[in-house]
């Protein structure tokens, strides 16, 4: 195996953080000047290897190291951050991918290596996450994002143009991706949650990204005077909603597997009640429900159970209930053969290979329909991310980087032997 240097990756990350952060955290907001500066910094590293960056029509940056075969292993993540973000989210995967190029630069690897830095993974400015990777995947609906504006009123289409990206040509990135004989996409990312820390493990094998069912559930009863309406005669929409929310927690727990990492999640994050008067029985109550699971069957069963629970609660409280879908996405399970290689790599480096699903979506999820994919997670201190406290302690960080570099080498061998 070519010589790997995890400390060099950490040094790069420190350098990037010093250049693109304030005392409040990372400021690499997509399509803005600090993000462009981060990309300039990265271009300097690539130039130092005698390679060059090509930008696709969606603004994603690619670096190609041609191999003996056109079969291609893709490595990468994203350099953009949320405002006041952490020093590892996204750029850890790009810096580790850079190290794989360093390991092979000046030689001809058995397969072609391509590094990608996806544009606007976070969606922090215009509200559309995975913008660049969705375009490359052919999944972006241009008309859905055409009218998006940021908080200052700047239109997405203008911010893109400022960066040389034409909104109406973004999907051409898909044509370019299809021309690559892509055999694997490998992404290292921080976990952004507390599961690995709770297990005391530095590095985890990611099984896929959760599917999501996100709905608004609206209960309609009758607003009435709180002093004069006896409890049995009320049509209290809030109580029906509250009963449903509690039951949804039970549904989530019932469908969870025993290990915390495999568990499903569900959240009632919004409660709107009308007329919102201390002396009135609530006549209308609307709650949000966000359910997530790695198995499409489990997710479907959770949704069906929740609907049943809402109907039961509605009946018991003499109110009606209506469901409105806000957003849904299917689970994106990763490739079994790459999961096995990932387990080997993590086990060789850390002695154990915990498996966990990803709650957050990642660019990797967009690649699942197009090529075999796997992700590796590095431990997040206190489960924190998207804030300046985001961190992975040195030993855990370096172990995760080494495990990832091993995974890339194993995948190169695996793909070249296909
Ligand atoms: Zn990220």
Description:
It is a single chain. This protein is of the alpha+beta class and 418 residues long. It is built from 13 helices and 18 strands. The chain has helices at 6-20, 33-48, 91-104, 131-137, 142-145, 156-162, 172-179, 195-199, 237-255, 296-316, 336-350, 363-367, 394-416; strands at 21-22, 25-26, 53-55, 61-65, 69-78, 111-118, 182-190, 203-209, 211-220, 224-225, 265-267, 271-274, 280-281, 284-293, 320-329, 332-333, 355-358, 373-378. The strands form 4 sheets. Strands 3, 4, 5, 6, 7, 8, 16, 17 and 18 form a 9-stranded mixed β-sheet that branches. Strands 9, 11, 12, 14 and 15 form a 5-stranded antiparallel β-sheet that branches. Helix 9 (237-255) packs antiparallel against helix 10 (296-316) and helix 11 (336-350) crosses helix 13. It binds zinc ion (ZN). Zinc ion binds at residues 78, 89-90, 121, 189.
How is this fold's topology laid out?
Layout: H1 6-20, E1 21-22, E2 25-26, H2 33-48, E3 53-55, E4 61-65, E5 69-78, H3 91-104, E6 111-118, H4 131-137, H5 142-145, H6 156-162, H7 172-179, E7 182-190, H8 195-199, E8 203-209, E9 211-220, E10 224-225, H9 237-255, E11 265-267, E12 271-274, E13 280-281, E14 284-293, H10 296-316, E15 320-329, E16 332-333, H11 336-350, E17 355-358, H12 363-367, E18 373-378, H13 394-416
Parallel strand pairs: 5-6, 5-7, 7-18, 8-17
Antiparallel strand pairs: 1-2, 3-4, 4-6, 8-16, 8-18, 9-14, 9-15, 10-13, 11-14, 12-14
The structure holds zinc ion.
The site of zinc ion (ZN) has 5 residues, from loops.
């Amino acid at each position: 195996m070519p010589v790997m240097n995890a400390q060099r990756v950490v040094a790069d990350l420190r350098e990037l953080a010093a250049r693109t952060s304030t005392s409040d955290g990372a400021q690499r907001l997509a399509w803005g000047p600090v993000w462009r500066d981060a990309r300039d910094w990265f271009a300097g590293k690539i130039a130092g290897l005698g390679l060059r960056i090509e930008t696709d029509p969606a603004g994603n940056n690619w670096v190609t190291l041609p191999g003996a075969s056109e079969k291609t292993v893709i490595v990468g993540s994203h350099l953009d951050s949320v405002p006041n973000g952490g020093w590892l989210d996204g750029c850890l995967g790009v810096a580790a991918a850079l190290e794989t190029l360093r390991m092979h630069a000046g030689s001809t690897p058995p397969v072609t290596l391509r590094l990608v830095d996806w544009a606007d993974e976070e969606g922090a400015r215009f509200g559309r996450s995975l913008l660049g990777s969705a375009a490359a995947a052919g999944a972006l609906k241009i008309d859905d994002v055409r009218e998006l504006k940021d908080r200052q009123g700047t239109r997405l289409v203008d911010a893109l143009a400022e960066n040389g990206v034409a909104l109406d040509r973004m999907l051409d990135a898909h044509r370019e991706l299809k021309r690559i004989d892509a055999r694997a996409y490998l992404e290292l990312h921080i976990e952004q949650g507390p599961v690995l820390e709770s297990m005391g493990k530095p590095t985890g094998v990611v099984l896929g990204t959760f599917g999501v069912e996100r709905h608004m559930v609206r209960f309609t009863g009758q607003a009435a005077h709180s002093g004069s309406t006896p409890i049995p005669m009320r049509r209290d929409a809030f109580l029906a909603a509250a009963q449903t929310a509690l039951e949804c927690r039970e549904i989530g727990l019932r469908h969870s597997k025993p290990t915390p990492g495999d568990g499903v999640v569900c959240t009632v994050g919004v409660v709107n009640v009308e007329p919102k008067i201390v002396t009135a029985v609530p006549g209308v109550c609307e709650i949000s429900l966000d359910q997530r699971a790695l198995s499409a069957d489990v997710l479907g069963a959770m949704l069906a159970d929740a609907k049943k629970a809402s109907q039961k609660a509605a009946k018991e409280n003499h109110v009606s209930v209506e469901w409105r879908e806000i957003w849904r996405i299917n689970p994106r399970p990763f490739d079994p053969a790459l999961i096995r290689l990932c387990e080997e790599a993590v086990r060789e480096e850390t002695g154990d290979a915990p498996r966990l699903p990803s709650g957050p979506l990642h660019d990797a999820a967009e690649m699942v329909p197009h090529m075999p994919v796997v992700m590796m997670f590095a431990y997040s201190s206190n489960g924190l991310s998207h804030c300046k406290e985001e961190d992975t302690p040195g030993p855990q960080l370096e172990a995760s980087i080494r495990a990832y570099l091993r995974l890339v080498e194993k995948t190169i061998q695996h793909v070249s032997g296909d």
